Amino acid sequence: MFVTRPIMPMPIFKTLLAASGLALLSACSLNFLSGAKPTTIPSPIAANPASLRIAVLAPEEMKLPTNEIVLTVYQKSGAGEISHDYTLVSANAAAEEADVAKFRKPGQHLTVLRLSPADALALRDQQEQMAAARQAGGAKPGFSVDLDAACWNGPMVAPVVPLDVLIEAGDDDGFHPLLQNIDIFALMNRPEESRLKSCS
């Protein structure tokens, strides 16, 4: 998933999210919004799989198909790469409304996703593998969210509410941004192979 193929370009959402996740984790901090205090990005090893939540703040017209949004948890180190894809399931968005309010922009619709119980157990096993591999040094863990199955169900005209993706890893700090202020209109006008598709 993270190896660039020269013939087939990586889909736009996967590219943006994977690259942003790596950059943010290497920087270890991020300003949520203008004037906000920096916060530590949650570590995949320390995350509580049962409490892990992904919040997608997007325009109402952006449709996220059920059981097609994938969370990748990965770690690259001297011992090699450990990576696994988890298909996310719907969570109670109303329960997270207050926690995402400080990130939410006017016009954004909230979708909250979580791991299934079986995948939460599988992530526990992966965390043990990643923790053991960290002894080899140079470990770079991260999260990536694949939104390539999303589509657009509305007129393709500017301006469009931006896309934000947040993660809550079961700590006391609440949600953290994985990706912020992605220009949906720009994604609609990319080359055919990497643009946000119209729902049809």
Structure, described:
- The chain has 200 residues and is of the alpha+beta class.
- 21% of the residues lie in helices and 32% in strands.
- It has helices spanning 12-27, 97-100, 117-133, 184-188, and strands spanning 30-31, 38-39, 53-59, 62-63, 70-77, 80-87, 89-90, 108-114, 140-146, 151-152, 163-168, 175-182, 197-198.
- The strands form 4 sheets. A 5-stranded antiparallel sheet has the order 7-8-3-11-12. Strands 4-10-13 form a 3-stranded mixed sheet, with no helix packed on it.
- A hairpin with a 6-residue loop joins strand 1 and strand 2 (38-39).
- The longest helix has 17 residues, at 117-133.
SSE blueprint:
Layout: H1 12-27, E1 30-31, E2 38-39, E3 53-59, E4 62-63, E5 70-77, E6 80-87, E7 89-90, H2 97-100, E8 108-114, H3 117-133, E9 140-146, E10 151-152, E11 163-168, E12 175-182, H4 184-188, E13 197-198
Parallel strand pairs: 10-13
Antiparallel strand pairs: 1-2, 3-8, 3-11, 4-10, 5-6, 5-9, 7-8, 11-12
Keywords: Signal
Organism: Martelella mangrovi
Protein name: Lipoprotein
Task: Identify the strand order in the major beta sheet.
Answer: 7-8-3-11-12
Roughly what fraction of the amino acids lie in strands? 25-35%
Query: Uncertain regions: pLDDT < 50 for 5+ in a row?
Result: 1-10, 15-39
Counting H and I runs of at least 4 residues, what is the number of helices? 4
Protein name: Lipoprotein
Organism: Martelella mangrovi
Keywords: Signal
Signal peptide: 1-18
